[in-house]
Amino acid sequence: QSALTQPRSVSGSPGQSVTISCTGTSSDVGADDYVSWYQQHPGKAPKVMIYDVSKRPSGVPARFSGSKSGNTASLTISGLQAEDEADYYCCSDAGRYTYVFGTGTKVTVL
Amino acid sequence: EMELVESGGGLVQPGGCLRLSCVASGFIFSGYAMHWVRQPPGKGLEWVSGISWNSGRVVHADSVKGRFTISRDNTKSSLYLQMNGLRPEDTGLYYCVKDIGDYGDGRDAFEFWGQGTMVTVS
C-alpha cells in the first residue's frame, strides 16, 4: 500500500487560509468517506483534527475544515494562527480494515 | 482523563524480538478498537496493526504480517504487540492508539494517542 501524496510544505501569514491536499486512489481515499487528518507538533504525539472527511472532534477550532472530491481530500485552515505551525498527516481506510497515511505536510506560519 | 502508557521498547539486534505493552485508563477499554502506529525518526506515520474490541478482528499491515502479532487483555485494559524477526526498517517510535469506535461502526479515526515507546533495531 503506497502512502497518500501530500505537498511537502505549505505556508501562510497569520489570518490567511491554507489548504493541504491528500491524493490517493479509488481503493483508499476515493472508496468511502473515511479520511482523517492529524496535527503533530515537534516531539509530541499526533492529534486528530478532522475525521470521516469533514467532522471535527470536540475541542478542535472551527477554522479547521475538511472536504473530499474523488480521490483527493483536503484540509483547510482558515484564519491561520501561530500555534497551527506543525506537521499534518492525512489518513484513509485502505480496505480490508487496513489504513494508509499521507506523506505529511509541514505548515509554516510566516 | 484518558491515558495510554506504552512500554517495552529498546535496542535489539536484527532478527530479535520485543513485546510492547500499553496500559489504558480513563475510558472503557473494552468498548473500543485499538491500534499500533509507528514513526521512524524524522519520518512520517505508518499504521502497523489494529484489533477490534473483542479481538474478533485482528489486522496487520503487509510490512509486518507474519512477524508481528497484536493482542489485548480487556481485564487488564492492556494492548500488546509481539514483534518477532525484527529488521532495521522496523526502527521507530511506536504509538498505542485508541479508535473512535470499533471496526465497521460507521466512524473512523485514531482518536487518542499515547506518547510512544522507541524501538531501535541495529
Order of helices and strands of chain B: EEEEEEEEEEE
Order of helices and strands of chain A: EEEEEEEEE
Biggest sheet record of chain A: 6 strands, mixed
The total count of helices of chain B amounts to 0
**Low-pLDDT stretches of chain B:** none
pLDDT average of chain A, as an integer?
A: 97
Could you give the distance between the termini of chain B? 37 Å
Q: Give the N-to-C terminal Cα separation of chain A.
A: 35 Å
- Quick one: overall form of chain B? globular
Mean pLDDT of chain B: 97
Category from helices, strands and their pairing of chain B? mainly beta
Shape descriptor of chain A reads: globular
Strand content of chain A: over 45%
What pair of chains forms the biggest interface? A-B, 24 and 24 residues
Total DSSP E strands of chain A: 9
Give a short account of the largest sheet of chain B.
7 strands, mixed
Structure commentary:
The complex is a heterodimer of chains A (110) and B (122). With 110 residues, chain A is an all-beta fold. Chain A has no helices and nine strands. Chain A has strands at residues 9-12, 18-23, 35-40, 47-50, 64-69, 72-77, 86-95, 98-101, 105-109. In chain A, strands 1, 3, 4, 7, 8 and 9 form a six-stranded mixed β-sheet that branches. Chain A has a three-stranded antiparallel β-sheet with strand order 2-6-5, with no helix packed on it. Chain A is globular, with a radius of gyration of 13 Å. The N and C termini of chain A lie far apart (35 Å). The mean pLDDT of chain A is 97. With 122 residues, chain B is mainly β. Chain B contains no helices and eleven strands. The relative contact order of chain B is 0.31. The mean pLDDT of chain B is 97. At the A-B interface, strand 7 and strand 8 of A face strand 5 and strand 10 of B.
